[in-house]
Every structure is written in C-alpha cells, then in structure tokens.
Amino acid sequence: MIKPIMLLRRGFASMRWRTRVTLWIAATIAGLLVVAFARLADMALAQFAQQTAERAWLPFIYTPLIGMLVVWLTTRFFVGAQGSGIPQVIAATRLARQGKPINRLVSLRIAFAKISLGTLALTGGFSAGREGPSVQVAASIMHFFHRFLPNARIVRREDLILAGGAAGIAAAFNTPLAGIAFAVEELGRKLETRTSGVLLSTIILSGMVAIALQGNYNYFGHFGIQDINLDIVVPALVIGIGCGLLGGLFSRMLLWPQRHPHLMIWQWRRLHPVWFAGICGLVVAILGWLSGGMSFGSGYGITSQVIASDLVLPWHAPTTRFLATVVTYFSGIPGGIFAPSLAVGAAVGANTAELFHLAAPPTIALCMVGFLAAVTQSPITSAIIVMEMINSHSMVISLMAVALIAKAVSSRMGPELYQQLARGFLESAEPATKPKIPTR
C-alpha cells in the first residue's frame, strides 16, 4: 500500500517540475521576444528620425501611407492586433474563464503581427508605444505553451494569460515588481493559490531575462533628485489634481468611438478603416510639423533628454503629444499608450516647473506618475515605474500620493480605460460564441 502512494507522490512531484520547466521556458521566450521588440522599435524610431531630419516634407506622404498599409494588413489578416494589446489580454482572461475561444486575441499569429506591424507603424512616426503590445505578445506566448503542460488542469488558461501579460510589463520596463503589481492591479485577477508561486516566478524570470540582455537600466533614464522636504506637499496636491483632470480627459477621448459609435465619423471609420488611417496619419504629420518633430514616435527620446538634462520644452509640447497619441489610437494601428503617456507627463512637468519656478526633476517625476496613473487608473504600477528612475527615497510617499490623487480624480470622470476597452472585444466575441438556434 505504501509503495503505490510513494510512486504517486513521485509522479506528482515530477509533473510539478515539468510544469515549472515548461512555464520557465515560456517566460524566457516571452522575455526574449519583448527585448527583440524593444530593439526593433528603437531601430524604427531612429530610422524615421534619420529620414526626416533633412526632409521635413516626408511625413506628409510617408506617415499616411504607412498608416494605411498597417491598418490594411491588420484588418485583412490580423484582426485582434489593433490598439494597445492590454484590453485584448483582459478580454482573453475573461473568455478563457468561460471556456470560449480566444485565438483571435492571444496567439502566435497575433504576437507576430503585434511586433511586425507595431514596428512598421513606428517607422511612420506614429505616437505609439511598445509596452502595451508587449503585454499581448507575452500573453500569447504563455497561452501557446499551455498545450505543452503535462496536465493542463494544473494551471488554468486564464492564470497563464494573466502571468504572460504581467511578464510583458516586467520585461518591457525592466522592472519585475511593476509586472507583479500590474497583474494584480490592472489585469484584475487573483492567481490561484496552488499555482501562484510558479506563475509569479515566470513574471520575475521574464523581467530578469530583459535585465540580463539589456543591463539593469532605467527605462527613461535616471533622475538626479536631492532629498526633498515638506515644501513639496502643496505642489504634489495640485499636480495630482491637475494631472488627474488631464489624464481623465485623455481616457475619455480614447473611449469616444466606443461610447458614441453612432456618430458619423466613427461609422465612416468602420466602413473605410484604411482611408481613415491615412487621414489620421496626415494629422499626425501636421502635429509633428507644428511641434518641430517633438510629437513623432513614442516620446522615448525627448523624455530621456528632459530627464537627463535641463532641456526646455516649448509650451505646445504637451498638447501636440497629447493630440498625436489620441489620433494615433483612433487610427487603429497596433500600438500602446504607456510611453506616450509618460512623455505627456514629462512635458507637462517641464512646462510647469518653468512656469512656476519649481525644481524641474521632482516636478517632472510627479507629473509623469500623475498622468500615467490617471490614464490607466493603476496608481501602484505607475508609481513603481517612475520610482525606478529616482535615486531619492524621500520622494516615494509623494509619488504614491500623487498617483492615488490622480487616480481618484480620473475615476470621477470615467471608467477604467483598459477595462472599458476590453468590453468592446468581449462584445465582438459574443456573436461568434453564441450557439446557433436551429430553424425549422
């Protein structure tokens, strides 16, 4: 009697280890793909900057054409790859929980499209980030590896997709802790107790792969902030409210097509998505020309310069970046809003510091965390991402306070952005999953 029990225990232990190894391989591949995506995105941004440096007229032709090509490929071959990627992952976890098909939202095909088309869009100068798409890429990889588990019932599909999405954030921002916070805060699922340890280890491993390949660097650079005192309390309160209002407005604008689908402009977009993308590309080109090129791309370059030096931005920098990001999202290209949102916050902070004669580094940091927290309504994740850039522990409380204030203000203006966008994918999946009623 004892021998069969021992054999059963050994088999179960072996199965657990095979599960761990499978998930760790998946996490490693996810981390590698996210890093590769980051390198491709950097190359695309550099190419656009090089091509347009001496040809200011080029974006007026090139950006609309790239937008039309990307949206045509997306609508023709890769439906489900449009937009950020985070709403798709949220929708996929809910559909998986209901036992419904999710291959239109997370699959190897979608991961390939997200990387290739997202990179192509950045060569056109669209104001989009790679962080949201990285979430969908990593979730797709983890979902694919679910079939290789020795026992598929050990780890639920929705938990694996959730862990994959969090691993994408961890690798994209080089911050494993941000990935864990994002899993709990934004993707909105509690991991099952018996598998939480191994799934958390996959999130950490994916982030460690990114650190091993790219070094332990900070995403936008490093703030040189001295210890601060109570004088920051009033500015932090004002920044939290102001960025909360701006971020809430930004979210409401992104939700405009979903909340008012009957408007003629959105009906025309549904009928002619490629032409609509071309018009959006032209608007992005005009905004880039008006801003002297500052609103093109993800905003990574200009934000890094603002953080590293006392670079003075023109007054229109936040507005043009804000509008370029909204128009880019409307176009339907695969691209996220994390990096552009941080760029808007940095521009707001730089202008605020100059206008009110405040110390630039802490003001920029507070505005970055405030705007991102207001847009995503994920204050903990936002605070962790910005905390990684700061060498002063005295700002931790201020960052958390601004993030919470901005989130509270934004939540008064509308629902959570990603959760609301996920509803659109859930509603579009309903007709395909509802059983057909036979007719007599």
Automatic annotation (TrEMBL):
<dbReference type="InterPro" id="IPR014743">
    <property type="entry name" value="Cl-channel_core"/>
</dbReference>
<feature type="transmembrane region" description="Helical">
    <location>
        <begin position="322"/>
        <end position="348"/>
    </location>
</feature>
<dbReference type="Pfam" id="PF00654">
    <property type="entry name" value="Voltage_CLC"/>
</dbReference>
<keyword id="KW-0813">Transport</keyword>
<feature type="transmembrane region" description="Helical">
    <location>
        <begin position="106"/>
        <end position="126"/>
    </location>
</feature>
<dbReference type="GO" id="GO:0034707">
    <property type="term" value="C:chloride channel complex"/>
</dbReference>
<keyword id="KW-0812">Transmembrane</keyword>
<keyword id="KW-0406">Ion transport</keyword>
<feature type="transmembrane region" description="Helical">
    <location>
        <begin position="275"/>
        <end position="302"/>
    </location>
</feature>
<feature type="transmembrane region" description="Helical">
    <location>
        <begin position="196"/>
        <end position="213"/>
    </location>
</feature>
<feature type="transmembrane region" description="Helical">
    <location>
        <begin position="355"/>
        <end position="374"/>
    </location>
</feature>
<feature type="transmembrane region" description="Helical">
    <location>
        <begin position="233"/>
        <end position="255"/>
    </location>
</feature>
<dbReference type="GO" id="GO:0005254">
    <property type="term" value="F:chloride channel activity"/>
</dbReference>
<protein>
    <recommendedName>
        <fullName>Chloride channel protein</fullName>
    </recommendedName>
</protein>
<feature type="transmembrane region" description="Helical">
    <location>
        <begin position="160"/>
        <end position="184"/>
    </location>
</feature>
<feature type="transmembrane region" description="Helical">
    <location>
        <begin position="380"/>
        <end position="406"/>
    </location>
</feature>
<keyword id="KW-0407">Ion channel</keyword>
<keyword id="KW-0869">Chloride channel</keyword>
<dbReference type="InterPro" id="IPR050368">
    <property type="entry name" value="ClC-type_chloride_channel"/>
</dbReference>
<keyword id="KW-0868">Chloride</keyword>
<keyword id="KW-0472">Membrane</keyword>
<keyword id="KW-1133">Transmembrane helix</keyword>
<dbReference type="InterPro" id="IPR001807">
    <property type="entry name" value="ClC"/>
</dbReference>
<feature type="transmembrane region" description="Helical">
    <location>
        <begin position="56"/>
        <end position="79"/>
    </location>
</feature>
